[in-house]
Write a structure and sequence with these properties.
This protein is mainly α. The chain folds into 3 domains: about 290 residues, no CATH class; about 100 residues; about 100 residues. It is globular.
């Protein structure tokens, strides 16, 4: 195969070569029915990009923070911002060494720039998701051309789990965005027409992104890319790739970026290394120490749901791994397959599983799906649309059933309030799919695919926004106003057998734990004077005459009342009860 560059004639020529013409690489012939000549103008793409960016970032503050991840990481960054200590990580005033600090640093910087708030707490997550999407498009364009790059971005944008993860304050999307940069840098560096300097720069991007991944979530930032490369080498029988990694300079860059914090935190906290590297890495992976074990197949339904709009392309995606590979030494499609398979199997074998763990595989899946989608003719694409229409219609018909759900912690009236949002999301999807079908019939298949992806993105966003009707209850935001009305400066607040993950952020103060340290057991062992280890110790403090508030579950509230502990109700929700040690008017 001759590696020549040709213009992508499915795009308007005014888009300009810098952004949208394909990079030099293997030219893949495009069937005439897929050319869509002159269909997408520069104006169409830039308007679409501006609209998507607006929705992506302007909806960050539309929901309240959810426990546990959102509240936890928002509060850790707030404590970092308030104390000025960017080395020793603290949560609820206690040492917290489960994760490294990079995402927390970024959130603290967001607070410095824009103030403390909900959208500021989610800003780094949104940036990480957008950066991962942009880097995925960059690598796709380099290898497969502009049209496939646009489709790759569209696929990732319309993957529900990537959208939701990018609007949820957790470390999973931060490490996923960093690993997307690793994958992109690796792909661009291995292009057969890469110059020595461009290969070096792309690999430095990959090594730097690995450093960010390590500083976000630990050693998986190195382990996962390393395992992927080993599997790729075995499958492709291509050892030459190891000579193009710029390993010496890259490793030095990685150490220069990561070592300072690890050295400083270890010097200030000698107990850090054993807890972080042994407990949080080895024991977390090999055992159920965090009580997050799940079956081997745990991630399968999450993958199906999280990649649902494109799951019908699975067979074609698998087939692309063998396309046009024999005529070039490096096999980019095979690397993508190795990337997705390695990370999926790695976390499936782990003793600790959470939904966000498989987010790093989505950029690779998006590239494979874009290659399959680009070659889909009108007839095959029509079948995909009909399948999506059937699913969205079934969702709309199921809306009344959603309105009948309910539990003690999430009452039925909250589900009834969510139904209009759920129905609206399904209706948006149906309308978008119908328009996509019409455009496909008219022969405008690329525009049809664009409308389809944007419909999924819009529907997912509406559903996410509507989730606050359910999430508000678990966020505890409705407890904040009555608690603030009763609080005075210096008044202690106790979490009795309960580690609340959102109220410390909303109250902007730490809560003293009682009897149940939850995930802060390590911190309470290091600083035992900062908590009350028994319920009896709490009762003594409570009856000392010092005004205080306490938050607890309904069961704990009933237990204390049965023990004749004097408590005055301040606020309550289906999940929590807030009490005071004094009558309401006392402060």
């Amino acid at each position: 195969m001759t590696n020549t560059s040709r213009p992508d004639r499915s795009l308007h020529p005014s888009l300009g070569p810098a952004l949208l013409t394909p990079g030099p690489g293997p030219f893949i012939p495009v069937p005439p029915q897929l050319s869509d000549a002159m269909e997408l103008s520069a104006r169409t793409l830039w308007v679409t990009l501006a609209a998507v960016a607006g929705v992506w970032f302007l909806t960050l503050g539309a929901r309240h923070l959810l426990p546990s991840d959102e509240g936890r990481y928002a509060e850790i960054a707030r404590e970092m911002f308030a104390t000025g200590d960017w080395v020793t990580i603290r949560y609820n005033g206690l040492k917290y060494f489960e994760k490294p600090p990079f995402a927390l640093w970024m959130t603290a910087l967001s607070y410095h720039a824009f103030g403390v708030g909900e959208w500021q707490a989610r800003l780094w997550a949104a940036i990480s998701g957008a950066l991962g999407l942009a880097m995925t498009m960059w690598a796709t364009r380099r290898w497969f051309g502009a049209r496939v790059a646009i489709l790759a971005g569209l696929v990732l944008l319309a993957a529900p789990l990537w959208n939701i993860g990018s609007h949820f304050n957790s470390l999973d999307i931060g490490v996923s965005g960093a690993l997307a940069c690793v994958l992109a840098g690796m792909l661009v560096a291995q292009h057969p027409q890469a110059t020595p300097s461009s290969r070096r720069n792309a690999m430095w991007i990959a090594w730097g992104a690995m450093a960010v991944a390590v500083l976000t979530k630990g050693l998986i930032g190195i382990v996962l890319p390393g395992l992927v490369l080993v599997l790729y080498t075995l499958l492709a029988r291509d050892w030459s790739v190891w000579r193009r990694l710029h390993a010496v300079s890259g490793a030095l860059l990685l150490l220069a970026l990561t070592a300072p914090w690890f050295v400083l935190v270890s010097l200030r906290n000698p107990e850090f290394a054993q807890f972080f590297f042994i407990h949080e890495h080895w024991q977390r992976y090999t055992s159920g120490v965090h009580q997050r074990s799940a079956p081997l197949w745990y991630f399968v339904p999450l993958l199906v749901a999280g990649f649902a709009p494109w799951i019908g392309l699975s067979a074609r995606m698998a087939a692309t791994a063998h396309d046009d590979e024999r005529e070039i030494s490096f096999k980019p499609r095979l690397l993508l397959v190795a990337w997705a398979a390695t990370i999926f199997m790695f976390f499936s074998a782990s003793g600790s599983k959470l939904p966000g763990y498989i987010l790093p595989i989505f950029p690779a899946l998006a590239m494979l799906a874009a290659l399959a989608l680009d070659r889909l003719d009108s007839k095959a694409w029509n079948r995909q649309i009909w399948g999506a229409l059937a699913v969205a219609s079934a969702g709309l018909l199921a809306s009344p059933w959603v309105g009948r759900l309910g539990s003690d912690s999430t009452p039925n009236e909250l589900y009834r309030a969510f139904v209009p949002w759920f129905a609206a999301a399904c209706a948006i999807a149906i309308a978008g799919f119908a328009l996509a079908r019409r455009l496909n019939r008219e022969g405008r298949i690329l525009r049809s695919k664009l409308v389809f992806g944007l419909a999924v993105f819009s529907a997912t966003t509406v559903g996410l926004l509507g989730h606050d009707t359910l999430g508000r209850n678990s966020s505890g935001i409705d407890l904040v106003a009555p608690m603030r009305a009763a609080l005075t400066p210096g008044m202690p607040v106790y979490g009795v057998r309960l580690l609340d993950h959102t109220l410390p952020f909303y109250l902007q103060r730490s809560i003293t734990l009682v009897e149940a340290p939850d995930e802060l057991e390590f911190g309470t062992r290091q600083e035992p004077h900062k908590w009350l280890p028994t319920l009896a110790a709490f009762e003594d403090e409570w009856s000392s005459g010092r005004p205080a508030l306490a938050i607890m579950s309904r069961d704990t509230f009933a237990l204390l009342r049965s023990r004749n502990v004097i408590m005055y109700a301040v606020a309550e929700s289906p999940r929590r009860v807030v009490v005071a040690s004094f009558p309401k008017a006392a402060p």
